[in-house]
Amino acid sequence: MPDSLDFAARYGPWAVVAGASEGVGSAFAAKVAARGVNVVLLARRQAVLDEVAAQITANTGADVRTVAVDLAEPTAMGVVADATADLEVGLLMYNAGADAHYRPFLAEPVDTALAMVQRNCVVPAQMCHHFAPGMVERGRGGIIVVTSGAAFGGAPNMVAYSATKAFDMLFAESLWAELHGHGVDVLSLILGETDTPALRRIREQRGFVDDPEAPLPGAATVDEVVQDAIEQLAHGPSWMVGAHLREGIKVFGGMSRNEVVDLMTQASGATMGEDAT
Ligand SMILES: NC(=O)c1ccc[n+]([C@@H]2O[C@H](COP(=O)([O-])OP(=O)(O)OC[C@H]3O[C@@H](n4cnc5c(N)ncnc54)[C@H](OP(=O)(O)O)[C@@H]3O)[C@@H](O)[C@H]2O)c1
């Protein structure tokens, strides 16, 4: 892992973190700020962003800018571009992207799926296209796209989600292939079940949490994800967080696509329950 001076020289002076009000995004922002990189925090809830920003400033002395923006809106990229126009951005983490609904495709209006495509595919593509040219020009920088084990196979209740996560994974891998020769590190950061506030909320809604204070058994921690993100950024194109996920995914190697879908369906049902119709 590069030390703080190297890290800031390679990825500073500013990082943009999309989805930074809690969980992986806020912890990643705090960690890179502690390494001397100023941070722009993006999420929808301004009050929560303000709290995260105050804590990062108090703990690190880094400059922090918050932008309340809904990344599922078509105007999002314009808002972010305006808010960062005066900054040299050397690091982008696109973290926002979970599915707060976990519902069958036909149980929701099609706009729910399209908003997921906008937030998880269109906007990260726009952001990479916006921020990467400066990185290429400077011959240094980093981009992390957070994706999911859901990218490896289809399953019910995640029709749009798993498809967008497959997009994110291949988008980042291909972008790595184009940019790493220009000094820009790109990483597809693949998460399995991870103990974030968002996952806890949906599991609680679905009656899956007995003790809200207890760690989710088998889930990766946010700290583990952030540590891997920083350690693996220079070793793209791809990294799966957690031995559990890395081992689990190996069984797909010898399977047909039909068998993969069958297994993904069983696994997601065991974690999140059956259809929510
Ligand atoms: N948790 C897991 O088990 C798990 C498993 C595999 C992959 N992942 C991936 O890990 C990433 C983080 O997941 P998570 O569980 O922390 O949940 P998440 O719902 O993606 O929340 C992460 C952050 O994104 C922000 N966000 C969500 N929707 C947004 C929108 N429309 N506009 C702006 N900001 C938005 C949230 O803040 P606001 O609510 O304030 O906007 C929050 O700060 C996602 O990409 C997800 O696919 C998670």
What does it look like?
- The chain has about 280 residues and is an alpha/beta fold.
- It has a single domain (about 10-270), classed as NAD(P)-binding Rossmann-like Domain (Rossmann fold).
- The protein has ten helices and seven strands.
- It has a seven-stranded parallel sheet with strand order 3-2-1-4-5-6-7, sandwiched between helices.
- α2 packs parallel to α3 (about 45-60) and α2 (about 25-35) crosses α8 (about 220-230).
- The structure holds NADP nicotinamide-adenine-dinucleotide phosphate.
- NADP nicotinamide-adenine-dinucleotide phosphate binds near residues 24, 72, 100 and 119.
Compact description:
The protein has one domain: NAD(P)-binding Rossmann-like Domain (Rossmann fold, 3-Layer(aba) Sandwich), CATH 3.40.50.720. The chain contains ten helices and seven strands.
Summarize the main sheet: 7 strands, parallel
In angstroms, what is the radius of gyration?
18 Å
Give me the count of strands. Answer: 7
| Whole-number total of structural domains | 1
Bound molecules: NADP nicotinamide-adenine-dinucleotide phosphate
Q: Could you name the ranges where pLDDT drops below 50 across 5 or more consecutive residues?
A: none
CATH superfamily: NAD(P)-binding Rossmann-like Domain
Order of helices and strands: HEHEHEHEHEHEHHEHH
Q: Count of DSSP helices?
A: 10
CATH architecture descriptor: 3-Layer(aba) Sandwich
What's the CATH C level? Alpha Beta
* Span of the ends, CA to CA: 46 Å
Whole-number mean pLDDT: 95
Largest sheet strand order? 3-2-1-4-5-6-7
Helix content: 40-55%
Structural class: alpha/beta
Broad shape: globular
Instruction: Estimate the strand proportion.
Output: 5-15%
What name does CATH use for the topology?
Answer: Rossmann fold
